[in-house]
Amino acid sequence: MEIFGVPLQAMMSQLLLGLVNGSFYAMLSLGLAVIFGLLNVINFAHGALYMLGAFFAWMGLTYFGLNYWEMLVLGPLAVGVFGVIIERTMLRWIYKLDHLYGLLLTFGITLMLEGAFRSAYGVSGQPYSVPDALAGATNVGFMFLPNYRAWVVLASLIVCFATWFVIEKTKIGSYLRAGTENPKLVEAFGINVPLMVTLTYGFGVALAGLAGVLAAPVIQVSPLMGSNLIIVVFAVVVIGGMGSIMGSIVTGLGLGVIEGLTKVFYPQASSTVVFIVMAIVLMIRPAGLFGRER
Amino acid sequence: MKTQLKKVTISIAAALGMLSGAAHAQISGDVVKIGFLTDLSGVYSDIDGQGGVEAIKMAIADFGGTVNGKKIELVTADHQNKADNAASRAREWFDQQGVDMLIGGTNSGVNLSMSKVAAEKKRPFISIGPGTARLTNEECTPYTIHYAYDTVALAKVTGSTVVKQGGKSWFFLTADYAFGTSLESDTSRVVKEQGGTVLGDVKHPLGASDFSSFLLQAQSSKAQILGLANAGGDTVNSIKAANEFGITKTMKLAGLLMFISDVHALTLNLTQGMYLTDSWYWDQNDESRKWARRYFDKMKKMPTSLHAADYSAALQYLNAVKATGTDDPDKIMAYLKSGTKLNDMYVKNGYVRADGSMIHDMYLMQVKQQSESKYPWDYYKVIQMIPGEQAFTTKAETKCSLWK
Q1: pLDDT tens digit string along A187-205?
Q2: Nearest CA to CA, how far is B210 from chain A (Å)?
Q3: Sheet-wide strand order for B380-386
Q4: Do the Cβ atoms of B342 and B313 come closer than 8 Å?
Q5: What is the DSSP string of B313-364?
Q6: What is the reported pLDDT for A144?
Q7: Cα dist. B11→B17, B18, B23 in Å?
Q8: How far is CA B207 from CA B83, B184, B269, in A?
Q9: Which A residues, 93 through 152, put their C-beta within 8 Å of a C-beta on chain B?
Q10: A228 lies within 8 A of chain B by CB
Q11: Which of A264, A265, A268 is nearest to B205 (CA)?
Q12: Contact at 8 Å (CB) between B48 and B38?
């Protein structure tokens, strides 16, 4: 059976691979959406913190002998702590200013982080192998799917929906959402809003760190890995609607799949298709697919 | 009367002295100044970058810091992979700093723009790291020498030798920009000439984040050889994904442009058995090993072929200054293009052709199996040496007006 001249089997495998890439987009754009939704900061440092997560995984293994599973917990934690320091020392001074200041500040942080790693480790990148438990591939009928890629999809879906659940369906989440609408009133109820904001930023960037650790065995751990991805991830957030949690998850996965299909029919356009979708969406729904018009 | 005669004698002597002084002062500004513009911070900074600076310093040190009694100076700068940046820096160096010769590091576009400035200012320009064959073909100039390799040589060596080794059917994974597409078309022409077949290609965007779907398309072609017509991070990530998806079990990979730093970054585990073409390998003979150890002591990693070529280019330029007794650009170029044999730890009996190509032997390498590698950086075995005349553009193919 063929679809537009492409065998069904090939089509299915490309869709599945698109879903794998979509998982990364979803996890990264989710972090951005959480941070923008609750802090109103356009966190341009997200790509650099993703890179930091991958480097922490590599450093943990190389310098301290910590394996993949240990770093899967410690890596995001370390990136989160790093984020807390950034928020406490720098970001909190600019909340009252225009969005542009946050963007410039975090862009500056990106340049410094990437520059530091580039001068310390060069640009060729560091090798990181797939953990033994996930090595090999499974026959899923239409293709041999490397087990590690299946794990990426699973891990990302669990993390994304857990985050959505906490923010949209629990009491802590409701405090968070209320805190962004009217911080003074929420504080009057005895809730420490600044602490909440700090922890939210820490959590958002920890998601980037987690994506970085997950990516380490798939692509070369290199100082430039974040800047290759961050622009696409921003497009995903814009398409989903700035600050929309569910929007970023669904568009992340969806765009991964669209990108995968483009790779079959016209591979040259696979890096552009996301932006074409973005342009179309912005023309029809300026607030994004899941965004609320204000 | 006597005093007057004395005055005349003195003034004649002084005039003569000045004349002869003029004849000897053939080193402009009393210093031989070498400029080196390369990518010191971006994607190409591992294959050349700071290591290239050190390599040129080593060449100057081998001359004891002076040539014909004049001091040798080196100025370096980061071109940041921006052609306009490189052109304006080169212009400033030639006009205001008295740079006598420019060495160009990586990046084809940037080197083409430096080549134009050098031709305009009539100063020798030795281009090391770019792949584009245009430097010595359509856009050749009387002052540009292309030193280490070009896409034509890569295509000829990898294409013809791999087909002869039994790799008859090819599929290309190509970076979708000028460098990738010309590398692919050059190589597939050679493959077909040698009796091989090209079953297809897939063009990926530069800096793609994931290569798995392109590789599945390559796999379904059932070709024996997967030609990687890309570079740097794209090559590294395609090889990584090829291993993950088990493609290396059914196809042999041929990296059309790979450096030892790429193999080192990927480890032998992922690269063993791959074919690649290079102009030099640190472990090829005693001379290269000796130099590589010196370099290793400074940089803590082994040199790529570009680092060795940086050293060699500076050394050969200084040899030319020594032999001709001048840094006059036209005399230096005439000397280098007069069939002077170039010999050092990088090049054996090389020479500069009228079109500016430095003709030297190229090598098809195969990456060693993990079990064959005995010590750190023991990565390649030489499969075949291809003489320079066969590797580079031929007189029948050239479009360079200087070589017609």
Answers
A1: 888 888 889 889 999 999 9
A2: 7
A3: B197-204, B169-175, B225-229, B252-255, B275-278, B362-367, B380-386
A4: no
A5: HHHHHHHHHHHHT---HHHHHHHHTTTPPB-SSS-SSBEE-TTSBEE--EEE
A6: 82
A7: 9, 10, 18
A8: 20, 17, 23
A9: 115, 118-119, 122-127, 129-130, 137, 143-144, 146, 148-149
A10: yes
A11: A268
A12: yes
Q: What is the mean pLDDT of residues A212-229?
A: 90
Among B217, B237, B269, the residue with its CB nearest the CB of A220 is B237
The answer to whether residues B78 and B41 touch, using CB atoms and an 8 Å cutoff, is: yes
Q: Which residue type occupies B20?
A: S
CA distances from B18 to B23, B27, B30, B70, B124 (A): 9, 16, 16, 19, 29
Residue B21 has pLDDT above 80, yes or no: no
Q: How far apart are CA B192 and CA A9, in angstroms?
A: 31
Contact A13 B216 (CB under 8 A): yes
Closest residue of B to A21, CA-based?
B210
* E strand or H helix at B23: helix B2-24
Q: How far apart are CA B336 and CA A210, in angstroms?
A: 57
B264 falls in which pLDDT band (50, 70, 90)? very high
- Neighboring chain B residues of A21 at a CB cutoff of 8 Å: 209-210
Of A129 and A4, the structure prediction assigns the larger pLDDT to A129
Interface of B with A (CB under 8 A): 41-46, 176, 202-205, 207-210, 212-214, 216-217, 220, 232-233, 236-237, 240-241, 244-246, 261-262, 264-267, 269-270
Mean pLDDT of chain B: 91
Mutate to test the interface with B, among A9, A13, A17 (most CBs of B within 10 A): A17
